[in-house]
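Sample pair:
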Amino acid sequence: MEAHLLKSRLESEGIPCFLFDEHLVNMNPLYSVAVGGIKLKIQEADKEKTLEILREIEGGHNLDENGEILKCPECDSARLYLNFKSMKGTKGFLSAITSFLFMVFPVYFKTVHKCKDCGAEFRG
């Protein structure tokens, strides 16, 4: 989904781009590691403009329900993964074992925010 959002943004800025290995990864997500994931390709001439757009997107801050910048309670960083699926803790460990034994996807996870700098997980 992120690749399509970025592709749409680049095309709206007049930068032609293409997604490679998208269908292969969608058919079997386990192939993602083998092929290196979905790749967004651009022309060499559009490299600087694309990097500028990526810096602009990465530089944006996430806001909480009060309109304040969401920050990590441990290190005060604003670089976060939002809605991260975490299996930390006893329930997550038991879910992983159960999933492995019955060969099913994990049945338990909690949705948290995760800091990109220190790795702390917290609920927002």
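The longest helix spans residues 47-59.
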